[in-house]
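Record type: monomer structure entry
Structure origin: computed from sequence
Chain ID: A
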Amino acid sequence: MRPARRIRLATLGLAAVLSAGQASGQEALQFPSPILTLDQEALYNGSLAAERISEEIERRGDELAAENREIEARLVAEELELTEKRPTMDPEAFGQLADAFDEKVQRLRAEQDAKTRELQRLRDRERQTFLRRISPILGEIVRERGAVVVLDRRSVFLSAESIDITQEAIDRINAAFEEDEALPGPDAPEPEPPAPVPTAPGDPGQPPSPADP
């Protein structure tokens, strides 16, 4: 056999193998996977309910920033007034006023820092509340897919796109909460825990709630 023909036959054989491999891969993706993946960050950012939470917390953050600027301007004015009084005051009396002013600055700073930390804790609590509220929706997807576990996609090195349920979950969550006025948000009452879903014989059980980010 001539070398050119041998190479041509080998190329055709390789093409046939690759074609068969692609067909087998497509067929394999049609079977249920026991493992699904979910990008929690994308899920949170793409959900209408979470967007309302973020907007409210951002509004509170803007209010706190404006309050901080107002306090700072007031303290600067008080410091300037105290400085202008210094040449005409008894040193001991001025020292007492200066100490009182320093204590006031430290107190206000501690109060504003506490408000900032509380706002961060509120953001974290609302995120967890959101994840608890949507867990039944994620559970439906898991059961429909015949899966037993959902992994955070960010911790998975490589996976097929077909097992990622992020967009499907976003669509279902948005549809479920679109007309719901009782969306999760700051100061909203803690929701009642969802009732357990009955499992059929042989069912692996309830899917785990998504792991904390």
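Annotation 1: The radius of gyration is 30 Å.
Annotation 2: Residues 32-177 form a domain with the Protein Binding, DinI Protein; Chain A fold (CATH 3.30.910.20).
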